[in-house]
Specification:
The chain has 237 residues and is mainly alpha-helical. The chain has one domain. Helix content is 79%, strand content 0%. It has ten helices and no strands. The longest helix is centred in the middle third of the chain and has 34 residues. 29% of the residues are buried.
């Protein structure tokens, strides 16, 4: 009897690993790993050639961009293995939404081109393009996973409402991160300060035109990235 139970437990564990592997493969994990490795190698080359540690912050920003992808994998796996336990999706889905703006945020790192002496302008632009591409790739892949879960739960049209809402919030998140210098975890560590800034902008929007412009621009940018990503996937399917 004990042997039978042990065999079932091993089979269940094996099925879980297989589901995880299939989920990772289907959602470009290995391609994203390759993109990240190339980006890090180019950064290492810059550090070696320049004998400086400029742009090392890109490593941290890339790590933060991986968090929403990991959370989306978590949600997708739970949705398939524990479909009746919806409450289990709350924590990883909340973390995904909180960290999602970190994926497109890397695009704003181009601002450092005017502050950091270039090794060679073409090299530094290429370096930032690699990290920005990888960050956006992580973002749209995680968004597709989350949309698939929402679509299975509540339907196609609601899932697109979810996408548009998420992208709108991500644009706001990019502005908050780049210009107000808040981090994703500040909603837990400094919620009063963060919400105070947000409510001030909502109360007087005309005095915060840059906030509206930046948020809208990055929301539209990610929408274009996402639609392009979906189109490419459908063509290759």
């Amino acid at each position: 009897m004990a042997a039978l139970e042990n065999q079932r437990a091993q089979q269940s564990e094996s099925n879980g690993v297989l589901i995880l592997h299939r989920t990772l493969t289907r959602n470009s994990f290995y391609s994203l790993l390759f993109c990240s490795a190339v980006s890090l190698c180019v950064l290492a080359a810059r550090v070696y050639l320049s004998q400086t540690h400029h742009y090392m912050f890109l490593v941290w920003n890339l790590f933060l961009a991986w968090i929403p992808f990991a959370c989306a994998i978590w949600v997708a796996t739970l949705d398939k293995t524990q479909p009746e336990r919806r409450w289990m999706l709350i924590a990883p889905a909340g973390m995904w939404l909180l960290f999602f703006p970190n994926a497109p945020y890397i695009v704003t790192d181009f601002i450092h081109l005017q502050h950091i002496e270039p090794l060679a302008m073409w090299f530094d632009i290429g370096l930032l393009m690699l990290f920005a591409w990888t960050g956006c790739f992580l973002g749209v892949t995680s968004l597709q996973m989350m949309q698939a879960v929402v679509r299975r739960r509540v339907g196609r049209w609601w899932s697109w409402g979810f996408v548009l809402t998420t992208l709108g919030l991500s644009g706001v998140g990019v502005y908050i991160g780049r210009y107000l210098r808040f981090n994703s975890w500040d909603i837990l560590l400094r919620p009063g300060h963060l919400m105070g800034n947000i409510f001030e902008a909502l109360a007087n929007p005309m005095a915060h035109q840059r906030a509206i412009g930046v948020s809208l621009m990055f929301s539209l940018f990610m929408l274009v990235c996402y639609v392009t990503f979906l189109s490419a996937r459908r063509r290759s399917a």
